[in-house]
């Protein structure tokens, strides 16, 4: 993987898309990635971009990157929406987005370029092409060896440069019901989707492991932020209602994207069986009484700066909302009857010290 050439070597084979069950899939390194790349999927990715930004108060990053950074790499850029927005906001930075699918627009800021490339292949960037910031978002299910990707990213960062992974857990839970007793179809669905991803060699539910992988790869100042996000409008908090509205739409489009190829190709389900499973999950997602939620995670760390490190970290241009410091007590049954369900904001978790208890909650939902 590298940007030594001018990127014009796209051959028609890259556009020889695979069509299956009404969806379109990538052709380059065919089959490595199980989600589609068609217009419907591109809409999902752009919606997810909006949801990530809402959580960051409009920002594109959580890491305290240098405003004067020069080179930025976006791993698995998808529609390129993050890279384009970042290039607009940082006009002095050269932003490179790479992906297996050539689905990025022709129009883009002059400081933004896209490459069809496999981030799991050897990286061929020369030393003078090192990056100040490497970003990957929503990449669970795309990578077979995360520790290797973390090490590679570290090697291709300038001293003091930041690596940031933004992702959501592929683990759903319900308020006061971590075992999803009240949403059995969702529980079955996520077990199957995660199992298929696991068997395909690219585990999907990896967000909760990123922090440890970064530490083991040698990053410094590794930080993880965990944000609980409602699926739907069942919360009282207006900001979370807004995020939950978008997240419900997003989750509804995740159902076919995450289910069709994984279950038919990997677990050998018939399409009719898959459609039945999808209909059950859809019914549960759209039922506000289930009070479903998921977690988004923002994990970042930096390459240790050398004595002559040029990167000087300071606060992000937009400060993301501050996390709650403590885990508040759960409401009593009486309070819940009177006030309705609490907003998940009230149970937002400050990750660094609480990661142990997060693991406990998550592991009950993991297959
Ligand atoms: C869930 S999408 C996320 C897209 C984008 N990062 C975003 O947040 O909007 C994952 C993307 O990674 C790409 N991808 C998967 N495996 C890849 C690989 N080995 N090398 C490059 N891109 C890959 C897919 O084609 C897809 O566009």
TrEMBL record:
<dbReference type="GO" id="GO:0032259">
    <property type="term" value="P:methylation"/>
</dbReference>
<dbReference type="GO" id="GO:0008168">
    <property type="term" value="F:methyltransferase activity"/>
</dbReference>
<dbReference type="Pfam" id="PF13489">
    <property type="entry name" value="Methyltransf_23"/>
</dbReference>
<protein>
    <submittedName>
        <fullName>S-adenosyl-L-methionine-dependent methyltransferase</fullName>
    </submittedName>
</protein>
<keyword id="KW-0489">Methyltransferase</keyword>
<feature type="region of interest" description="Disordered">
    <location>
        <begin position="307"/>
        <end position="367"/>
    </location>
</feature>
<keyword id="KW-0808">Transferase</keyword>
<dbReference type="InterPro" id="IPR029063">
    <property type="entry name" value="SAM-dependent_MTases_sf"/>
</dbReference>
């Amino acid at each position: 993987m590298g940007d030594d050439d001018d990127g014009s070597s796209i051959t028609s084979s890259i556009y020889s898309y695979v069509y299956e069950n009404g969806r379109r899939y990538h052709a380059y390194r065919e089959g490595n990635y199980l989600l589609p790349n068609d217009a419907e999927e591109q809409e999902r990715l752009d919606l997810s971009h909006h949801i990530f930004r809402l959580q960051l108060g409009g920002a594109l990053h959580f890491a305290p990157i240098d405003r004067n950074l020069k080179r930025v790499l976006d791993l698995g850029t998808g529609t390129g929406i993050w890279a384009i927005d970042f290039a607009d906001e940082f006009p002095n930075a050269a932003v490179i987005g790479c992906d297996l699918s050539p689905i990025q627009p022709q129009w883009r800021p002059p400081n933004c370029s896209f490459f069809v490339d496999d981030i799991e292949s050897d990286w061929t960037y020369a030393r003078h092409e090192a990056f100040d910031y490497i970003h990957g978002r929503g990449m669970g299910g795309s990578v077979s060896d995360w520790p290797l990707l973390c090490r590679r990213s570290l090697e291709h960062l300038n001293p003091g440069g930041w690596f940031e992974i933004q992702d959501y857990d592929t683990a759903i839970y319900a308020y006061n019901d971590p075992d999803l007793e009240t949403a059995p179809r969702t529980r079955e669905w996520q077990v199957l989707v995660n199992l298929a991803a696991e068997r395909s060699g690219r585990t999907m539910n990896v967000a909760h492991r990123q922090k440890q992988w970064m530490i083991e790869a040698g990053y410094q100042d590794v930080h993880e932020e965990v944000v609980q996000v409602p699926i739907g409008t069942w919360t009282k908090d207006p900001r979370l209602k807004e995020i939950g509205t978008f997240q419900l739409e997003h989750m509804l489009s995740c159902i076919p994207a995450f289910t069709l190829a994984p279950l038919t190709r990997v677990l050998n389900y018939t399409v009719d069986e898959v459609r039945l499973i999808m209909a059950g999950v859809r019914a549960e997602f759209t039922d506000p009484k289930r009070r479903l939620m998921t977690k988004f995670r923002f994990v970042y760390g930096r390459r240790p700066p050398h004595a002559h490190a040029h990167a000087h970290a300071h606060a992000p241009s937009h400060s993301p909302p501050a996390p709650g410091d403590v885990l508040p007590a759960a409401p009593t049954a009486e309070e819940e009857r009177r006030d309705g369900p609490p907003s998940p904001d009230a149970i937002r978790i400050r990750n660094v010290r609480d990661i142990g208890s997060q693991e406990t909650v998550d592991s009950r939902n993991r297959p």
